[in-house]
Design goal:
The complex is a heterodimer of chains A (258) and B (583). Chain A has 2 domains: 101 residues, Roll (Ubiquitin-like (UB roll)); 133 residues, Orthogonal Bundle (Fumarate Reductase Iron-sulfur Protein, Chain B, domain 2). Chain A has 258 residues and is of the alpha+beta class. In chain A, β3 and β4 form a beta hairpin. Helices cover 33% and strands 14% of the residues of chain A. Chain A has 9 helices and 7 strands; from the N terminus they run ββαβββββαααααααα. With 583 residues, chain B is an alpha/beta fold. Among the domains of chain B are: 119 residues, Flavocytochrome C3, Chain A, domain 1, CATH 3.90.700; 141 residues, Fumarate reductase/succinate dehydrogenase flavoprotein-like, C-terminal domain (Methane Monooxygenase Hydroxylase, Chain G, domain 1, Up-down Bundle), CATH 1.20.58.100. A 5-stranded parallel beta sheet of chain B has the order 7-3-2-11-18, with helices on both faces. A 5-stranded mixed beta sheet of chain B has the order 19-17-12-22-23. In chain B, β9 and β10 form a beta hairpin. In chain B, α8 crosses α9 and α13 runs antiparallel to α14. The longest helix of chain B is centred in the last third of the chain and has 25 residues. Chain B starts with a strand and ends in an 18-residue tail after the last strand. Classes of the chains: A alpha+beta (258), B alpha/beta (583). At the A-B interface, α1, α2 and α3 of A face α3, α4, α7, α9 and β16 of B.
Chain lengths: 258, 583
């Protein structure tokens, strides 16, 4: 009847068998994580997420991980694939060898299997006040004016999907539990650079604090792993500069020294 | 078990739920909002919407034009009072998002840009490149953080509504990370859980779009309205079903068959001008375009691919600069998922289940027939979308009716006294007992994957782009059997911590309920209107079917059906005309 019949990829004849080692952790039955191997018949069109779904549907229903959109925009399915922070819905089996390893995102507490704590990001977003703090009240019954050039200044930083790959890549996130973190700092700068915003000084209370931008040692891994080409490392460098200028301004004659 | 006392409970933290939460917080900071979602807000499926949000912004466009496009696009099944409210509020709602920081595309003078969209007479679709839903969702989420009265309960899975004597008193839920049962009590509840595309196997919808909220309301006695109307988006990627935005056609993209021929001209959508006029050819409505594909396929004029037949969406003539500025995600998705760079080659596409026009029966205030229970967004049917939604009306809908739901729920919460927890003990116990039984059932011949596959097969076979009596009747019998078999389902995973198999099983329960309602409503509507096309009743029949379908939950029995009049204020039903015949 319906011409648009189901045509989703499914493993069939000729599928390549890939051994997928998954670092599992079930807190109700084991005190430390352990590896489990699955032999998965994979289509080359599959993503790593499709392979995990095959495991869950056909091999082991107890494997836990998050996913939703399958198009690299919801930010749910980050995990370590062969040791690299990766969005599993955007990593293709055709690019991977016959044996791969999958582990939960590094540097974040593991709840179960590939499911990690998200509070590091959520707390950071709140702490930096990642929302528009208006420079002036909006015009009545009208928009703020913003030219394409003004939009272009902050737009790349709006592309963050909150997937937390940058937290898994950042050595400072691992070393300092209090560090605000790359994505939250990038989103703070996203608003700082928005022509409608006047909240940069207010945000500095967090971003320029001991746990803010000065914790960053500019390794740049966050920008390397970002699936959306956001450049948190660059944003953090800009904020360091702004913070230094503010420090100097406060101490200059006539400055508002505190 | 623990209990949370709130004033307004919102189930779902996507666009509609977040907008509702902000509306409550702004209208009365003393009201405690419990924002409950099975995912973190930014994972909600609003994130995947691409093309934009409709709202009249500049001449020669008018509110009347937006009204007329929406009503005719919906094949006169829209409630016109709701559409009037919608088009009036749309510009204000979109401007509000601008004031909150949404990065809309801009013209050189600094104003917001608008683009063409299918079935719309004028350019009125506000857009943020082709990630409009993503930016709307993140803007709303980030804005919501500043209101201390909004308390989020992320990764809390809602189970059942607590209702008695025609009024709502709260919900039961499970904390996903611990498995702990939670009861939320409040005088007002808003459902904003989105659609149910996952009832079908081939869909643009994310894994979370399983109709949970629709099923919650339905089981509590609110009918599902016009639930037979399922929108196929004409341009999804083969295999994955990933959406390629209608914005691609809004910018000038063309659809061609295996002969390179712009086949839409054969389906009353011509003339095939190089850049189609509004409401013609590639800028026709989604139902007509998906139906045209079906006919092309029957004529053998589609292209074979490894994942079913396709046609081509060609945007090469737009050039790399325009594509990167206005359609960057189209390029990114096509390269990654089908290995095609649309700057240099056409994109293979096919129709894919995208949107549910129907949903929880609400009135213009987003209120259901249960006192204190509201619904907004795709899970609701208000109805502004009628028999076929126009692209870019739904992102605006979540804003307009999300706000509406928030304001009315706040008002309700202020004027209605709290109910005592003791009143709900039997209902609470029954809700958690059902989950416990599923979790503990040791062994069964029924599997989650088996039942879900059978549901998918019968929905696609019977309730696709074209439908007819015999297959629908067979499907209605089969889905009843599936629901019966579901009651004996056992799962392998009996743990409490983040048991995704348990949640998938609960989602399947919702999908079976919603799927059954779709099939029954489709069977009863013996006409063709908008997205509901019957091979055995090919014409629209206003004499017998110019009404909303209401499907009432029947428990272990099949559902029952009734109807409700369509509100017509100023646009009497007329022929639905696209292409050169459009005025």
């Amino acid at each position: 009847m319906n011409a648009v019949s189901q045509a989703s990829p499914s493993a069939g004849q000729g599928a390549r068998i890939v051994t997928i080692d998954v670092l599992r952790y079930r807190p109700e039955q084991e005190s430390t994580p352990s590896w489990q191997s699955y032999a998965v018949p994979c289509c080359e069109e599959w993503t790593v997420l499709d392979a995990l779904n095959h495991i869950k549907d056909h091999l082991d229903g107890s494997l836990s991980y998050r996913w939703s959109c399958h198009m690299a925009v919801c930010g749910s399915c980050g995990m370590m694939v062969n040791g690299n922070p990766t969005l599993s819905c955007k990593a293709f089996m055709r690019d991977l060898p016959d044996r791969i390893s999958i582990a939960p995102l590094a540097n974040l507490g593991v709840i179960r299997d590939l499911v990690v704590q998200q509070n590091r990001l959520l707390d950071g977003l709140l702490a930096v006040k990642s929302w528009l703090i208006p420079r002036e009240l909006p015009p009545r019954d009208d928009q703020y004016r913003q030219t394409p050039a003004q939009l272009a200044k902050y737009r790349p930083l709006t592309m963050c999907i909150n997937c937390m790959l940058c937290y898994a890549a950042c050595p400072q996130v691992a070393l300092n539990e209090g560090y605000v973190g790359p994505a939250a700092l990038a989103l703070a700068q996203r608003y700082n650079l928005d022509s409608r915003d006047g909240g940069a000084l207010e945000r500095m209370q967090t971003t320029a604090s001991d746990d803010g931008v000065w914790e960053c040692t500019f390794i740049g891994e966050c920008s390397e792993v970002c699936p959306k080409h956001v450049d948190p490392a660059g944003a953090i460098q800009q904020m360091k500069l702004a913070s230094s200028l503010q420090w100097l301004a406060q101490r200059a004659p006539g400055g508002s020294s505190s | 078990m623990h209990t949370v006392h709130a004033d307004v409970i919102i189930v779902g933290a996507g666009g509609a739920g977040l907008r509702a939460a902000i509306a409550v917080a702004q209208s009365d900071p003393a009201l405690r909002v419990a924002l409950v979602s099975k995912v973190y807000p930014m994972r909600s499926h609003t994130v995947a919407a691409e093309g934009g949000a409709a709202g009249v912004i500049k001449s020669p466009d008018t509110l009347d034009a937006h009204f007329n496009d929406t009503v005719s696009g919906g094949d006169w099944l829209c409630d016109q009072d709701a559409v009037e409210h919608f088009v009036e509020q749309a510009p204000k709602s979109l401007r509000q998002l601008e004031h909150w920081g949404c990065p809309w595309n801009r013209d050189d003078a600094g104003g917001v840009q608008v683009r063409s969209f299918g079935g719309m007479k004028h350019q009125r679709t506000w857009f943020a490149a082709d990630k409009s839903g993503f930016h709307i969702l993140h803007t709303l989420f980030q804005t919501s953080q500043q209101f201390p009265s909004i308390q989020r309960f992320d990764e809390v899975f809602a189970l059942d509504l607590l209702c008695a004597d025609g009024a709502v008193g709260g919900i039961t839920a499970l904390h996903m990370q611990s498995g702990e049962p939670i009861v939320f009590l409040a005088r007002a509840v808003i459902i904003a859980t989105g659609g149910a595309g996952r009832v079908f196997p081939f869909t643009t919808n994310g894994a979370i779009k399983t109709g949970d909220g629709m099923a919650m309301a339905y089981r509590a006695g609110v009918p599902l309205k016009d639930i037979e109307f399922v929108q196929y988006h004409p341009t999804g990627l083969p295999g994955t079903g990933i959406l390629i935005t209608e914005g691609a056609r809004g910018e000038g993209g063309l659809l061609v068959n295996k002969d390179g021929y712009r086949y839409l001209q054969d389906y009353n959508l011509g003339p095939p001008e190089p850049h189609p006029r509004p409401k013609a050819m590639e800028l026709g409505p989604r139902d007509r375009l998906s139906q045209a594909f079906w006919h092309e396929q029957r004529k053998g004029r589609t292209i074979k691919s490894a994942f079913g037949d396709v046609v081509h969406l060609d945007i090469r003539h737009l050039g790399e600069k325009v594509i990167d500025e206005r359609l960057p995600m189209v390029r990114e998705l096509a390269r990654a998922y089908v290995g095609v760079d649309p700057v240099h080659a056409p994109i293979p596409i096919r129709p894919v289940v995208h949107y549910s026009m129907g949903g929880i029966d609400t009135n213009i205030n987003a209120a259901t027939q249960i006192d204190g229970l509201y619904a907004a967004g795709e899970c609701a049917c208000v109805s502004i979308n009628g028999a076929n939604r126009l692209g870019s009306n739904s992102l605006t809908e979540i804003l307009v009716f999300g706000e509406q739901a928030g304001l009315h729920a706040a008002q309700h919460a202020r004027t209605h006294p709290a109910t005592a927890e003791t009143q709900w003990q039997p209902a609470i116990a029954a809700s958690f007992a059902a989950v416990h039984a599923l979790l503990e059932r040791p062994k069964s011949s029924e599997t989650l994957v088996g039942l879900r596959s059978e549901l998918h097969e019968l929905m696609e076979g019977a309730a696709g782009i074209y439908r007819e009596q015999a297959t629908l009747r067979e499907a209605s019998d089969k889905v009843a059997v599936l629901r019966q078999r579901y009651r004996t389902l056992a799962i392998d995973d009996h743990s409490m911590v983040f048991n995704t198999q348990l949640f998938q099983a609960l989602e399947l329960g919702a999908m079976l309920d919603v799927g059954e309602a779709m099939v029954h409503a489709a069977l009863a509507r013996r006409e063709s209107r908008g997205a509901h096309q019957r091979l055995d009743f090919p014409e629209r029949d206003d004499q017998h079917f110019l009404h909303h379908s209401l499907v009432h939950y029947g428990g272990e029995q099949p559902p029952s059906l009734s109807t409700k009049p369509v509100t017509i204020t100023r646009s009497p039903p007329a022929a639905r005309v696209y292409g050169g015949a459009t005025t």
